[in-house]
Amino acid sequence: MKIYPLIYVLLNLLSCKTEQVLEISVEQAAENLKKGDVAFILSASAEDMGQVTRINQDAPFYAGLLIEEQETAPKLRAARLFEAGLASSSERARVESGRKLLFLILEDETVAEYVLRRIEDGAFGFSDFSGFSTLKAATLYRDGRFIEARKELGDDKSGAVFDKWNKALFLISTIRSGGAVSKELTDFFFAGPIEEIQKWAYEEIRNTEFFSSGFFDKESAVLRGHYATSVLDYREGLRCFQAVLDDKDDKKIFFYKYPYLIADLGRCFQYTNADEGVNLFLEWDAQVGKETDPLVRFYLLLFAGRMERQRKNYASASVFFERAIPFAPDREQKDATIWYLLDAIQKDNPEDVVPLIAKYAPLWGDPFYFSDILDKLCQYLTANHKWTRMLELFPSIRRYADGASFAKYAYIIGRITAEGFVPDAEVRAFTAIDGSSKAFFRIAFAQKNASFYYRAMSARQIGENVEVSKESGKNEAKTPSFIQGFFEYGSARFVSVYIEEFLKEKKTELWSENTARFAIDELRAMARLLYKEEYWHDAIRFLIPVWEKEGLNYSDMEIYYPRPFNDTIEKYAELTKVNPAVLFGLIRTESTFRNEVVSYAGAVGLSQLMPETAEETALRIKKQGGPDYIAGGLQLTDPETNVHIGSFYLAFLLKSMDDSLMFSLLAYNGGPNRVKRWRSADTALPDDLFLETVPITQTREYGKRVSAAAAAYGYLYYELEMEATLADILNKGKGEKLEF
């Protein structure tokens, strides 16, 4: 009795082996698709794309991404694949397939005709898809059948996922068929920022008679200004807005009714004519009453402050920012306004930021948003030996700052206490902590989400070692099936955009004490997949929220500090007598192992070499008997060439920087002459405290980031304690002769 189901399963398996997908076996098609080889799809006709579901019902969406990238218009194969993707087992894949198909319909007339024909012939098999009416209306719209498109959507234009597109299609179809939708249209365009949907709608009507006639005369000017601002054309934006600025009634109709337009106008003034803008915004603010929408007050005050900041009138800017805070509409806007306030005060008089942080830190929504403010303030206080101010600030840092900033301040206070720069009694009076330095080192050491630099430096001071848990966690989640599909079907290079969307959706959840666990472990799982597929940069990037939330375990660290190009990096580390952990840390910090990357400044490759520096160093290598990298043209995107030159240059800097590896790292980023000048200006501080005073943020952080990464690489792969690696970086040693 029980044998029949088994036979049935076996027969099914045997039949699958003989089934074909576009004239090749299912197995071969699955293997090709996983490798990203879509030649078998490109050689077939659009009508046959449904066969891809024989690989798996989830496969068409991911295959569609690959085909869309390669197929020239008309993109009929991609459209057919996205249609087939509406049958995916993943709800997210179904929705994304629908979106992709909608975009192709609106962009490509041939695709629109093709899909409409399939719908009208009854060949389109997904009329139960939640966005079907949107897709059909789009095809009717592209066919010029505007009244039918409007009827397809009906008077109820709402929908679960496609509601905004439904509304856009309904409104533009109404306009194109001669109807009037004045209020709905202004609401649609002016209630918020110009997004992809509004851009499409704007392009559809900008050249029509409707756009410049009837009631829409002034509205068209405002819309042009709104659109120009969205593409950062502030002069054109202001020119368009001028058409309604002088009329009091227009001011109420547009700017007071749609406060986001005030933000647009503020940006236009800020970057073109801040003097005039400040006066206008303050005049408006004086005229509005208490009954006015708080959002109007918020944008008037916020942008008055931003314009004053642009004019470098920081004191008056701070007044406007402080007045704007009570009107902020949400947590993100409140954080942004407080940040502007602190930044303006910091530019005017940094010490005045200390009491303001005590006042406003309890209102912070996201403490990481303010880490740069705390970093700049730390640099100022340390460089100017304002130790009492730092002690005064510490209680607020302890309660409200992110863990990384807290560890930094705790370590520095421990060091200035140990050096005797402040008396123990003063430390105790301000911080309510035992005045001994070790108490602060223990605080920094205990911060699991702090940089390994401060944790390991603190560990050195108290005779401890940083150890990382090898337990991965009991509640580890699986990768969402939608994300998993990118890796199963050869389209992993597209996945980062969708993980970014996942992060946006999970933003609140990630920082909720009650619900963060699952989201954190999902990120871990996604980072692991990226790591296995050698997308090092993205794997590292998506582990950052995990570190910020709870720190990294050992498995996380192996992903966060990977070792691609291992043989090449270790080879040249040994050749140039550079610690391999340091060289790994430098390359990871410079390029996250992307050998083709070119920075905005023109630095190239794994170790981010400037072409001039690379050429000079290549000549030195040749003169010392090494290979000639210049002959035939310097190939800095070649890993072998880049790593050899980069490691040789670091070793060269070590000689010129008095055998200080830390100063060599700073010189690698900021230039040797500049670093020497900074150090000679303040010889009273120990090297680790001097590092906190480096005036260029990028260089200051570079030294610590490379050091922290080197400590991690030493710990993970070279059986070194983190503390030992940092000691090697901070302590001067004897340079050795370079060899080949």
Report what the structure shows.
There is one protein chain. With 740 residues, this protein is an all-alpha fold. Among the domains are: 276-348; 481-552, no CATH class; 575-730, Lysozyme (Orthogonal Bundle), CATH 1.10.530. The chain is 66% helix and 1% strand. It is built from 43 helices and two strands. It has a two-stranded antiparallel sheet with strand order 1-2. A hairpin with a 2-residue loop joins strand 1 and strand 2 (24-25). Helix 10 packs parallel to helix 12 (196-205), helix 14 crosses helix 16 and helix 23 (387-400) runs parallel beside helix 25. The protein is globular.
In short:
The protein is mainly alpha-helical.
Label this structure with key terms.
single chain, 740 residues, mainly alpha, Lysozyme, disordered C terminus
Task: Summarize the amount of helix as a percent range.
Answer: 55-70%
The chain-level mean pLDDT equals 90
Report the total helices. Answer: 43
* Measured distance between first and last alpha carbons: 75 Å
Q: What is the global morphology?
A: globular
Strand content: under 5%
Q: Label the CATH architecture of the domain at 575-730.
A: Orthogonal Bundle
